[in-house]
Amino acid sequence: MKSNNPIVLLMIPAILMAFINACNFSQSTDEEEKRVVKLNYTDWTESVAITMLASAVLQEKMGYKVELKLTDVESVYNELANRQADFFADAWLPYTHEKYFKKHQGSIDSISTIFRNPQTGMVVPEYSSLKSISDLKGTNLNIIGIDKGAGIMTSTREAIAHYGLSNKLISGSDDQMTFQMVDSIRRRKEVVVTGWEPHWIFSRHEVRFLEDPDQIFPKGEHIYAVGNKASIKEHPHATELFRRMQLTDQQFNSLIDQVKMATDPLNGIHQWMEKNQYIVNKWVKDLQPERLKVM
């Protein structure tokens, strides 16, 4: 039965508008939920720096909520595979993290190169009498390492076996390793650590890699951003940011140094972003939500 009641007729547009608004709110809520990304990282110097930078850009420039988790490298890949994390910006491939990446390659994919040609090996002070890894033979020096699951620790164990060394490899953390190096330099003592570049210790102290004539430590790898395959599809703007975040030697080293010098790592990140506004603006071009474009 058709109603000609003028009050009812006036109410129809209002009811329709309320229904449309409710649908839009639901859609907006769903979109906001998808703007939460989880980043895992390790306590390695470059991992902290690049992850904190990505987090700041995602939150402050792109309107994401970011959840950060510090863990060991094996857990990083396990959680990526199980989608407990979305992205990891410090994957050393194709060699150092090979076993973790291959184990989960059905659910994890590489996104882009963050930094090209990093180096790993055994590191000593410039004044050291040691020139090559084989020179460690017959010494009683411990090799100061980082967490035992790290790829560099695997390579170091292989180097110890290959060069016939009896030196003990000590596992620990990045901070413990650098403390031992800096303390030994201060006292001008012999010390050997598992080291890699980029790392702030190369810009602060005169240190060098021991020669590795048989190339046990891998060459020709890069630092990649990787992500859970479902997360890559669900977060196209975050994924595109990682595709664009490609750092030169100078940019990455200055970032690491800025973070290390700051009392609060986030302050160091903001200082770097301020000095590199042009680069950051290129990264986020056309990726910002409307509400941030006018800020």
Structure notes:
The chain is an alpha/beta fold and 295 residues long. The protein folds into two domains: 35-117 and 221-293, D-Maltodextrin-Binding Protein, domain 2 (3-Layer(aba) Sandwich), CATH 3.40.190; 119-209, D-Maltodextrin-Binding Protein, domain 2, CATH 3.40.190. The chain has helices at residues 6-33, 45-60, 73-81, 98-103, 151-162, 174-186, 201-204, 229-234, 236-244, 249-261, 265-275, 277-284, 290-293, and strands spanning 36-41, 65-70, 87-93, 108-116, 119-125, 143-144, 169-170, 192-197, 207-209, 222-228. A five-stranded mixed β-sheet has the order 7-6-8-5-9, with helices on both faces. It has a three-stranded antiparallel β-sheet with strand order 3-10-4. A two-stranded parallel sheet has the order 1-2. Helix 5 links the parallel strand 6 and strand 7 (169-170). Helix 2 crosses helix 11 (265-275), helix 10 runs antiparallel to helix 11 and helix 11 packs across helix 12 (277-284). The model is unreliable at 20-30 (pLDDT under 50). Residues 37-275 form the ABC-type glycine betaine transport system substrate-binding domain.
How are the secondary structure elements laid out?
Elements: H1 6-33, E1 36-41, H2 45-60, E2 65-70, H3 73-81, E3 87-93, H4 98-103, E4 108-116, E5 119-125, E6 143-144, H5 151-162, E7 169-170, H6 174-186, E8 192-197, H7 201-204, E9 207-209, E10 222-228, H8 229-234, H9 236-244, H10 249-261, H11 265-275, H12 277-284, H13 290-293
Parallel strand pairs: 1-2, 6-7, 6-8
Antiparallel strand pairs: 3-10, 4-10, 5-8, 5-9
